[in-house]
Amino acid sequence: MSGPKPGFSRRAFFGGAVASAAAGAAIGVTATGLSEQAANAQAGGQGSAAGTSTAAGETYPFYGEHQAGIQTPPQDHLVFMVFDVTTTSATELQVMLAKWSAAIAQYTQGLAVGTVEPERELAVPGDTGEAAGMGANQLTVTVGFAPSMFDGRFGWAKYKPAVLNDLPAFASDALTPEFTGGDICVQACASDPQVAYHAIRNLARMARTTATTRWTVQGFGRASRSADQATPRNLMGFKDGTRNIVGDDEFAQQVWVGADSDQQWMTGGTYLVARKIHMLIETWDTDYIGDQHAVFGRTKMEGAPLSGAAEFDTPDFAATGADGKSVIPANSHVALAAHENNGGTKILRRGYNFTDGIDSVGRLDAGLMFISFQHDPAQFIALQQKLGSMDRLNEYIRHVGSGVFAVPPGLAAAGDYYGKALFA
Ligand code: HEM
User: Fold this and answer.
1) pLDDT tens per residue across span 214-245
2) Is the CB–ligand 1 distance for residue 12 below 6 Å?
3) Is 98 helix (H, G, I), strand (E, B) or coil?
4) What is the largest CA-CA distance in the chain?
5) Whose CA is nearest to atom 43 of ligand 1?
6) How many structural domains compose the chain?
7) pLDDT digit string (tens) for 368-404?
8) pLDDT in tens, 301-311
9) I need a surface site. Which of 70, 264, 356, 362 has the fewest CB within 10 A?
10) Which range marks the domain in which residue 263 is found?
């Protein structure tokens, strides 16, 4: 996995290539990822880089085998939005996906699409402007298609992967229509929230007349880690992401769809499961620490398994105490979710803490925007079937939103676009 490219400054942001409305059209991005104008702007030193931090200038490559935003080390901020496609014209959908692809290629490299201040007084600005001068901020944008996209509206039925189906109902589900379903998901992650929001906002703007917004969640703190990151904490105060998938081998085995898939267009892709999980924070905050430890099967500050002393100690699920009971309770979250107890199944967790403020009676409205990636949704389903019915954590959480999406592989080069193979 290649790391971020430092020093790609905000000077380039408004170098300005303009996205073509034509499907598959390239938009003036050179092989280096810089538009000619942007490169000139950089070389000529237009604007000032003052105040631009290293992270602000960092970019992740857009083109490649896999979409960015999956194996990419989790950034600090998320905007997740699900769209409903309103057109029944495959051509209009194709144009929208081509525009999105070209725009995302720009945004993720710190470049804009169109200008904020067009020369003609009567011209509408191409870009909304709120990310001007901010840099790419490690922005990644990841796009996925729900099962509903393969219902025949666009001629995609023959391309439906056998494993892509609506998720089954799980015990303890409390799903609401406001945060469930939809046709296309877009996950924008960045080290700055405004940069992530700008990308989503402008994609929504481009989609108008073709797709409408259905539901969204803004995450303000990562709740997962990659190999080189410290483990962050979720809103229950526990370290989250300790035993996440981190190595290339595990990504190959558990996350990326292989060439043996029934749909070749998914090779190098993956499946995204989104669950908006509300936490009953007031109830959790009155729970005593011994029970909190038993709920997760780990300690709160260190994050160690209850059978060990340090965060990365391997849990011993067979260990018993003087009372003969399991040291890590069998109904604790980690005992139920661990690969040792699930035939080796693992998933990549890449969730974010979120808050929606307070609810109508003044309770804190917050939780975990759980996002996982796996080569088959069955991996998530098997885990959630156990967790949904037995997890001690269920007393303190409610799954209120849900979606499953096929995430195609990365785009090859300028001119390629999301779903291109599906229009053949
Ligand atoms: C609000 C909901 C959730 C919270 C607060 C939460 C929190 C945690 C915490 C604190 C850990 C232990 C540290 C770690 O290894 O990352 C963990 C582990 C894990 N969680 Fe969750 N989790 C939630 C929902 C889920 C869901 C819905 C799934 C999948 C269906 C899931 C799957 C896992 C897995 C696979 C592990 C690793 C277990 C191990 O190998 O030890 N979690 N979670």
Assistant:
1) 999 999 999 999 999 999 999 999 999 999 99
2) no
3) helix
4) 80
5) 240
6) 1
7) 999 999 999 999 999 999 999 999 999 999 999 999 9
8) 999 999 999 99
9) 362
10) 72-90+137-424
- What is the position in ligand 1's atom list of the atom closest to the CA of 275? 27
The amino acid occupying position 230 is A
Which of 281, 334, 394, 402 has most ligand 1 atoms within 8 Å of its beta carbon, as the pocket-test mutant? 334
**187-211 as b/e, with b when 16 or more CB fall inside 10 Å?**
bbbbbbbebbbbbbbbbbebbeebb
Atom of ligand 1 nearest to the CA of 384: 30
Output the residue whose Cα is nearest ligand 1's atom 18.
334
Element of type H or E holding 85: strand 77-85
Which band of pLDDT confidence, cut at 50, 70 and 90, is reported for residue 30?
Answer: very low
In a domain, residue 46? The reply is: no
Rounded distance, CA 251 to CA 256, Å?
A: 6
Give CA 408 to chain center in angstroms: 13
Ligand 1 lined by 273 (C-beta under 6 Å) = no
Does ligand 1 have an atom closer than 6 angstroms to the CB of 317? no
Question: Could you tell me if 38 and 12 are in contact, meaning their C-beta atoms sit under 8 angstroms apart?
Answer: yes
Nearest to 94 by CA among 154, 158, 183: 154
* Residue at 39 is within a domain: no
| Ligand 1 mutation target, pool 333, 384, 386, 392, most atoms within 8 A of CB | 333
Whose structure tokens read 């020093």?
7
368 lines ligand 1 (CB under 6 A): yes
Helix crossing, 193-207 with 90-107: angle to 10°? 160
Helix (H) or strand (E) holding 379: helix 377-390
- If 0-12 CB within 10 Å is exposed, 13-18 middle and 19+ buried, where does residue 362 land? exposed
Domain membership of residue 188 (yes or no) is yes
Q: Is residue 123 part of a domain?
A: no
Ligand 1 binding pocket includes 277 (Cβ within 6 Å): yes
- Cα-to-chain-centroid distance, residue 252: 18
Per-residue pLDDT band for 337 (boundaries 50, 70, 90) equals very high
Residues 6+ apart with CB under 8 A from 152: none
Please, what is the Cα angle at 308 between 302 and 310, to 5 degrees? 35
